[in-house]
C-alpha cells in the first residue's frame, strides 16, 4: 500500500500551479454525452483517478474518448448505450449525472446506485423528483435505477428542497435537450455549475441564470461538441492556502480565481492571515499568532464542506477554542479520530467539532478516511513534530495531482513510498 511520509517543521516558499477543477471537469465530461454532432476537446483536465473512472464510463456508454496530458477529446455522435454498471458507478458519485443526458438523448437509462467518498448517505431523490417533473418515470430493480420517458423530456417548473449540486447539474443537462422551457428554483450556485452552463451554452444550449438560485433553460433540438477549458480547482487552491497558513509560510498560487474562494479568504483573514490577489494569482501572507474562529459549512457562497477537514487541521494549531459545524454531510468528521492520534484535542457535539487548539501535534501513523481528509492529515503532518505516515492514498488520488511533489517543491520534507508495480499510471489511450 502506498504511503506518504512527511516530516513536520519546514517552512514553505515559492509558487504552486493549481490544476483544473475535479468537481467541474466531472460534470463537464458527462455533458459531453449530449452533443449529437462534432466532438468536444476539454483542456486543463487534471490527471486524477476520478477522471480515469469517468472516461472509462463514457467509453462503456459508447463515446469515443482520447486522453492526452491535460486534454480529453470526447465524441458522442455515435449511438450510446444507456446502462451504467455498478463497478464504475460505485467508485464515484458523479456517475449519477449520466442520468440526465441519457434520458434526454435516448429516453431511457439504467444506473447502479452511486458511490463516492464515505462521508454520509448520498440520496438522489432531488434528481429523481426533478426528472419526474420533466416526464420521466423510474423504478428500482436489483440495485439499479431504471428511467424511461415517452420519447422526450418536457420543460417544467422545478423547485429543489435543498440546493443540491448534483441535482442541479443533472437537471440542467436534461433540460438542455428537453421540449420547452425549464425553470429551476433554489438551485446550487457553485462555480462548477456556471462552468457546466458555459460549456453547454457554447455547444448551442440556452441556459441563463447559472450562478444564481434561479436557472432558466430553453431546450434545444441538438447540441454540437466544442472546445472548453475547465476552471481552476478552488478546493486544491484552498488546500495550498492552508498549507501556507499551517507552516507560517508565504506562498503564491497560480492559475486560480480568487472570487471562487471568498468564504475561505474571509475566514483566513479573520484569523489574521493576509491574502493578496492579482490576475489569477493569490499570495498568502501568514502571521505568527493566529486567532481561533467558528466555521459552518454551507452551500456556495458559504464555506465549502470540501475545505472543512483542511481548516480543522489548521485550527488544531491555533491557540484557543475554535468550532466547525458541518451542515452538508452527516458523516464528514471521520478525520477527527485521526487528528486525535496526532495529539489534537477535538470533541464532537452533534454536528459541531470543538477544537482546543495550540497543543503541539505529534507525528503518527494515520489513515485517510476520505479525499479531503487525506489532504488534511498531510497538512497536519507539515506542522507536527516528527514523522507522520498517511495511508489509504487512493482517496487522495481521486482529487489531488502530485500533492506530495508540489509540497516538496515548495520546501516540505515529504515523500511518497509506492508499492512496486502498483503506482497509478496516467491513461494514454
Ligand atoms: C451543497 C454542497 O456543498 N454540495 C457538495 C456536494 O455535492 P454533491 O452533488 O455530491 O452533493 P449535493 O450537493 O447533491 O448534496 C448535498 C446535501 O444534499 C443532500 N441531498 C442531495 C441530493 C438529493 O437528492 N437529496 C439529498 O438529500 C445530500 O445528502 C447532502 O447532504 O459534494 C461535493 C463533493 O464533496 C461538493 O463539491 C459540493 O459542494
Ligand atoms: C467528496 C468529494 O467528492 P465526491 O463527491 O466525488 O465524493 C470531494 O470532492 O471532496
Automatic annotation (TrEMBL):
Q: Where is the Enolpyruvate transferase domain?
A: 6-407
Q: Where does phosphoenolpyruvate bind?
A: 22-23
Q: What catalytic activity is recorded?
A: phosphoenolpyruvate + UDP-N-acetyl-alpha-D-glucosamine = UDP-N-acetyl-3-O-(1-carboxyvinyl)-alpha-D-glucosamine + phosphate
State where the protein is found. Answer: Cytoplasm
Active-site residue list: 117 (proton donor)
Which GO cellular component terms are attached?
Answer: cytoplasm
* GO molecular-function term, one example from the UniProt record: UDP-N-acetylglucosamine 1-carboxyvinyltransferase activity
A Gene Ontology biological process in which this protein takes part is: peptidoglycan biosynthetic process
Major localization class? cytoplasm
Q: What does this protein do?
A: Cell wall formation. Adds enolpyruvyl to UDP-N-acetylglucosamine.
Family indicated by similarity: Belongs to the EPSP synthase family. MurA subfamily.
Protein name as catalogued: UDP-N-acetylglucosamine 1-carboxyvinyltransferase
Amino acid at each position: 500500500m502506498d504511503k506518504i511520509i512527511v516530516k513536520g517543521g519546514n517552512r514553505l516558499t515559492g509558487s504552486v500551479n493549481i490544476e483544473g477543477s475535479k468537481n467541474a471537469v466531472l460534470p463537464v465530461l458527462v455533458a459531453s454525452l449530449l452533443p449529437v454532432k462534432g466532438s468536444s476537446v476539454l483542456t486543463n483536465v487534471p490527471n486524477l483517478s476520478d477522471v480515469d473512472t469517468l472516461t472509462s464510463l463514457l467509453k462503456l456508454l459508447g463515446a469515443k474518448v482520447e486522453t492526452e496530458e491535460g486534454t480529453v477529446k470526447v465524441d458522442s455522435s455515435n449511438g450510446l448505450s444507456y446502462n451504467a454498471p455498478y463497478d464504475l458507478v460505485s467508485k464515484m458519485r458523479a456517475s449519477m449525472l449520466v442520468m440526465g443526458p441519457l434520458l434526454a438523448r435516448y429516453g431511457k437509462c439504467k444506473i447502479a446506485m452511486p458511490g463516492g467518498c464515505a462521508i454520509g448517505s448520498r440520496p438522489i431523490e432531488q434528481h429523481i423528483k426533478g426528472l419526474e417533473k420533466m416526464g420521466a418515470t423510474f423504478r428500482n430493480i436489483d440495485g439499479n435505477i431504471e428511467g424511461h420517458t415517452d420519447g422526450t423530456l418536457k420543460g417544467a417548473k422545478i423547485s429543489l428542497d435543498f440546493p443540491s449540486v448534483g441535482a442541479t447539474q443533472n437537471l440542467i443537462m436534461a433540460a438542455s435537450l428537453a421540449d420547452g422551457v425549464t425553470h429551476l428554483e433554489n438551485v446550487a450556485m457553485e462555480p462548477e455549475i456556471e462552468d457546466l452552463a458555459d460549456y453547454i451554452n457554447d455547444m448551442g444550449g440556452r441556459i441563463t441564470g447559472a450562478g444564481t438560485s434561479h436557472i432558466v433553460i430553453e431546450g434545444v433540438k441538438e447540441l454540437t461538441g466544442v472546445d472548453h477549458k475547465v476552471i481552476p480547482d478552488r478546493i486544491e487552491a484552498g488546500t495550498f492556502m492552508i498549507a501556507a497558513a499551517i507552516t507560517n509560510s508565504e506562498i503564491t498560487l497560480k492559475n486560480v480565481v480568487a472570487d471562487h474562494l471568498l468564504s475561505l479568504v474571509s475566514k483566513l483573514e479573520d484569523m489574521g492571515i493576509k491574502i493578496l490577489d492579482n490576475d489569477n494569482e493569490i499570495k498568502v501572507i501568514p502571521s505568527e499568532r493566529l486567532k481561533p474562529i467558528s466555521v459552518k459549512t454551507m452551500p456556495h457562497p458559504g464555506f465549502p464542506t470540501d475545505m472543512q477537514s483542511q481548516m480543522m487541521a489548521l485550527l488544531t494549531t491555533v491557540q484557543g477554542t475554535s468550532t466547525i459545524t458541518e451542515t452538508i454531510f452527516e458523516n464528514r468528521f471521520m478525520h477527527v479520530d485521526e487528528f486525535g492520534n496526532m495529539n489534537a484535542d477535538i470533541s464532537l457535539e452533534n454536528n459541531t467539532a470543538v477544537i482546543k487548539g495550540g497543543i503541539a501535534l505529534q507525528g503518527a501513523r494515520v489513515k485517510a478516511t476520505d479525499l479531503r481528509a487525506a489532504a488534511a492529515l498531510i497538512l497536519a503532518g507539515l506542522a507536527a513534530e516528527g514523522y507522520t505516515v498517511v495511508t489509504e492514498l487512493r482517496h487522495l488520488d481521486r482529487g489531488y495531482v502530485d500533492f506530495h511533489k508540489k509540497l516538496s517543491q515548495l520546501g516540505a520534507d515529504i515523500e511518497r513510498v509506492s508499492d512496486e508495480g502498483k503506482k497509478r499510471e496516467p491513461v494514454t489511450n
